[in-house]
Structure formats: structure tokens, C-alpha cells
Write a structure and sequence with these properties.
single chain, 351 residues, alpha/beta, Rossmann fold, 2 domains, 7-stranded parallel β-sheet, 5-stranded parallel β-sheet, 12 helices
Length: 351
Amino acid sequence: MPIRVLIVDDSPVMRQLIRHSLAGHLDIAVVAEAANAREARDAVNRFNPDVMTLDVEMPEMDGLEFLRRLMKARPMPVVMVSSLTERGSEAAIRALSLGAVECVAKPKGGRNGALLFENLDSILRMAARAKVRSRRSPSSRTEDKAPPFVWNGKYVLIGASTGGVEALETVLSDYPENCPPTLITQHMPAQFLINFAARLNKKCAPHVQLARDGGELEQGCVYIAPGGETHLALSQASRPTLVLQPGPKQTGHRPSVDVMFASARKHAAKVIGVLLTGMGADGAEGMRVLRENGAFCIAQDRESSVVYGMPRVACEKGGVDVSLGLSRIAGEILSRTSKNGAFMQPANMAG
């Protein structure tokens, strides 16, 4: 059966361009179009599409508010297609946080939709396979139920891709202010990462910032790979520091999770490796190496992953100690990095 697509945009010209870009792909069928949130709601109920393209700027109700309501009432894969979701836009980060699978920028000029949206078909195929769900309820863990967190000296390295914005917000929202030093590689363009770090810093208790070359690893700090022309890595010194390592893409990405994990091989005994939702295999081989050298490695499980790609390959390679639902990952990290083990949770052993 072809992938059933609903196009939501208040511009008839843009709807035509999107439709034209998808023409000729026999595995994709545009089943309906909508010009506003009301029409989109009715089309979702009538046509039951597999995936939706959604504009941000629309009359009556903007796309972000419609997305928020949709993800509560009837979660489904959504790809944002808008001039407001260009690289670095706060709207893009908010859309991904609300549950959008991907963001695509509208063209600035020209009228050839097939060329202007040349990768949209691939993005829609990926999105149609994604697993989306209602927004999670707040974490049940509260600070007054556990003794204060006391760091045991271990570092945390986290990799994520598709679905990673919401997943990382979920994990870090359960971090205490004095959390273990944590490095994060999230597949995103550099300008997205600037806004993502700023958003996390406002929402979470620890200090979240873009990593800088030569920076010290400090308790209470979370370091985001800045991307661009560099990968985030750890130095080989006995007391490691942050390294922004220039180089080509690895496993198809820059920043690459594999590069970050591989750089920590010497420090593996003091590392907790975490691989969250994402398409592809980046981080799987690096996690295997980390585990073989003494790291404890956690993967997000199939049920809670938007795209169960990177964690699945890591499990297949033998690089995972435990696979956990997203809501349990922060507790497991904190139990493994705490002197008192106050946050320990039962773990489902990976297969």
C-alpha cells in the first residue's frame, strides 16, 4: 500500500509544489489537502493519512498550536514544511519538541517543486515508519523521594538522531542541578544546535551549553556537540577535556556519535554510554567498543523509540547492557553515576 500523505498549507501554490514534488513516486499517494487547522482535523478523521506535511503560518490557528493539539489527541507522523523551520529557527526546535519527526524549509524562490523538495519523498518514507505517541506525563521521580545526588566520578555520553529532541528533553528534565558531566551528540545542523542548547538550558536544571574546544568537564554541566565542521570528542589525558575534532562525516554524520564514543575508549571504565532513538547505525560500533572496554551501555527500547534504528543496531552488535523505556533512562544513568545509588531502577536486560 502506498504511503498516504495529507498536505496542510494555507498557500495553494505551495500545496501544488509539494504535490508536484511527490508525483511519480508510486509508493506515495497524496490523499488530501487542507488550508487550515479545521480542514486538517477533518481530513485526518476522514482519510486517516499515514503522514502529514504541516505549515507553521496558517490563519485562525498556527501550525505549532495545531501540532500540539494533534499530538495529544491523535498522534501521527508530521513533517513541518515552512519558511519558519529553516536552519536555526526556534520554530523548528519547538516543532521537534512537540513531536514532529522532521523539519523541511520552504524554498525561497523558483516554482519547480520536484527540484525544490527533492528529498521530501525520502523524508516522508522515514516519517511514515516513525513511532509517535501522546506527550508523556511528567516524571514520577521527585527530589524529596531520594537522597541528594552525589557524583561518583563517571561521565555520560549520549547519542541521538530522529526523535532525539523530545527524547533528550525527557532525559535531561529528570537530571538534578548537580548532574554528572554529560556529552551529547545529536544529529542536527549547527544553527539548530545553537537554539537547541539554549532551549534545554532554559528548561532543565543543569547548565546546558555548546561544547568548546579544550573545555573542562564539570559537574552540573551538559555539553552539546556544536556540529558544523567538527565532531565532539574526549581528549586522551588522564583527566579528559572536550575536543572539537575537525574531520569528514562519519557513518554519514557530522557530528557523529561513533566519533564521540570511540574517543572515550581509554576512559571506558568511567563512562556510561547511552544511545537514543534515531535512524541508521551511527553510534552502534562505538558503543560496542565502549562496552568491550568496560563502559556500561544503555539503549532506548523499541517501544519508546520514534525510530528504532541506532539502538537496534547497537543491540545486534553486542554493545548494550540494558534496553530501557525512555522514562527510565535518566534514573538508570543517575544510579550508575551516583555514590549512593539512590536512583537505581530495575533494568530489562537487552536481548
